[in-house]
Amino acid sequence: MNLVKRHFAFLTLGLLLGVAFSQTAMSQPYPNKPIKLIAPFLAGGPADNIAREVAKYLRDTLGQPVLVENKTGAGGIVAATFVAKAPPDGYTLMIGSTGVLSVNQSLYKSIPYDSVNDFTPISLLVAMPSYLVVNESFPANSVKELIELTKKNPGKYSYGTVGNGSSHHTNFELFKSMANVSIVPIAYKGDAALMPDLVGGHIEMAMGLGPSILPMVRSGKLKALAVTTATRSSQMPNVPTIAESGLPGFDAFTWFALCGPPGMPQPIVAQLEAAMMKAFADPAFRARFIEIGVEPIGSSAEKFSQFQKSEIQKWAVVVKKANMQAE
Predict the structure, then answer these.
(1) Residue 20 falls inside a structural domain
(2) Same domain assignment for residues 198 and 232
(3) With 0-12 CB in 10 A as exposed, 13-18 as middle and 19+ as buried, what is 326?
(4) Residues 6+ apart with CB under 8 A from 36
(5) How many CB atoms lie within 10 A of CB 10?
(6) Which CATH number belongs to the domain containing residue 145 in this structure?
């Protein structure tokens, strides 16, 4: 065999081996290595607990480690940008939230990702209700009484938030808009600062998430007038909804969803979607979420996609009317 023929034979053999290797790699079932689950929240809080429950279930179901990586900063923008630019191979996923995947789109003048086009929806996981609460000495004992009182005294009363565009803020601004009342927002750095002022009467009311609010309600330090979701919460079934208390159609909650980078292969999306829907059909799995104060959902990718788009539109109206803006 002359030199040219020998070179051609080696080249052909190399190409064949390359193709064989590529086909073998492509034929390996997903997943065949650890998965990163990005969480845009601080470790140890309720949102982080949600991410870790999902990671544990996926690990047990898929047979590969699922590692939660907390990437905080800029209202979730740091984490979302990282995921939006990750390879769409199913090995980088994110637990997104109301703020990250809907409110941020209108709250910020500019963000480095598009909430819809830069992510692949997989499943809407859970809803975390908020509660409209007042301090023990506040004279209103129902939503109707609160609305009547604040209409007679516009701008006299205040509510607490934990930052511009937080659920405390957006949910209450939706309430103000629908009730046509004037209540002044007071910003705090977190629930740890807000709660003492609320209990002590320095502010009169708030719409806080269950994990931080319910212990205060159960101890009698706060009065829960209503829950913000369209249906009553399993955590406090005796507390009426805002919708049934005089504002029909009111429905606001913090949600968490599983998504990935744009362009994920449909078979991988379908596999992850099926895993989540199976998980949320398991009473034991659902019970673990109820224990930490959230309502389990577990939707299809299509339903989550439709829901997310409706949420972006809904909160854009609230953000604009309240003149909210973050830099």
Answers:
(1) no
(2) yes
(3) middle
(4) 66, 67, 69, 91, 92, 93
(5) 10
(6) 3.40.190.10
Q: What tens digit of pLDDT does each residue of 65-85 get? A: 999 999 998 889 999 999 999
* Domain span holding position 177: 129-245
Residue 15 CB contacts under 8 Å (≥ 6 apart), including other chains: none
Identity of the residue numbered 14: G
pLDDT per residue over 133-154, tens digit each? 999 999 999 999 999 999 999 9
CA distance 182 to 315: 19
Per-residue DSSP letter, 101:
I
Report pLDDT digits (tens) over 78-122: 999 999 999 999 999 999 999 999 999 999 989 999 999 999 999
Nearest to 40 by CA among 32, 48, 31: 48
pTM of the full structure: 0.85
What are phi and psi for residue 36, nearest 5 degrees? -95, 130
